[in-house]
């Protein structure tokens, strides 16, 4: 259980460091060789260095985002670990003068390797489950539902918000509304783990 606790702690700290803009600590959670890392979340696909850089550029001071991660299943084989977690992302966002609360529920699949006695993240992929969007104040007028129709149900509100900020959100992200995409993520990560 000691190794599981160390792994769970690392995954929780990684999310905390991103939310609190501690970029050096965030980077140290990942494999030191960025070429051995693979991150695929929302609008980013690339390595750990690129992810930290993108996070730094897209997380201005004052943006209120909280990532909560709860590792549920931690498998360990020699120097590898494959972790399935439940996760929630919550944010307060201002769009067209209206404050919104955005919440996204998802699964995170993390691959870790032990390097010189320390666990480091080598991969992170997410599977979107559902999300919600509500005005922060009951007096505010919500957006037109028609604006949401072009986005997939598993990450509709997150995609709407990111699009409102000029980001191009892919329509083929892994999500519970597309079982084939979920199977691909699970298979890819299990194959990686099985090579341990």
From TrEMBL:
Name the domain of life this protein comes from. Answer: Eukaryota
Q: Which organism is it from?
A: Truncatella angustata
Q: Where is the SnoaL-like domain?
A: 3-124
A Pfam family of the record is SnoaL_4
Question: InterPro entries, from UniProt?
Answer: NTF2-like_dom_sf (IPR032710), SnoaL-like (IPR037401)
Q: What is this protein called?
A: SnoaL-like domain-containing protein
């Amino acid at each position: 259980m000691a190794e599981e606790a160390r792994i769970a702690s690392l995954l929780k700290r990684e999310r905390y460091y991103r939310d609190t803009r501690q970029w050096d600590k965030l980077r140290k959670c990942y494999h030191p060789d960025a070429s051995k890392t693979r991150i695929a979340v929302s609008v980013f696909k690339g390595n750990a260095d690129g992810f930290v850089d993108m996070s730094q550029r897209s997380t201005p001071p004052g943006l209120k985002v909280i990532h909560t991660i709860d590792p549920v299943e931690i498998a360990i084989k020699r120097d590898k670990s494959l972790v399935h977690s439940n996760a929630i992302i919550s944010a307060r966002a201002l769009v067209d003068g209206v404050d919104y609360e955005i919440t996204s529920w998802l699964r995170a699949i993390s691959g870790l390797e032990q390097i010189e006695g320390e666990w480091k993240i080598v991969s992170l992929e997410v599977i979107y489950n559902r999300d919600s969007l509500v005005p922060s104040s009951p007096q505010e007028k919500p957006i037109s539902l028609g604006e949401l129709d072009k986005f997939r149900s598993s990450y509709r509100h997150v995609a709407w918000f990111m699009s409102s900020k000029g980001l191009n959100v892919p329509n083929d992200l892994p999500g519970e509304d597309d079982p084939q995409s979920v199977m691909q993520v699970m298979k890819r990560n299990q194959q990686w783990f099985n090579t341990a």
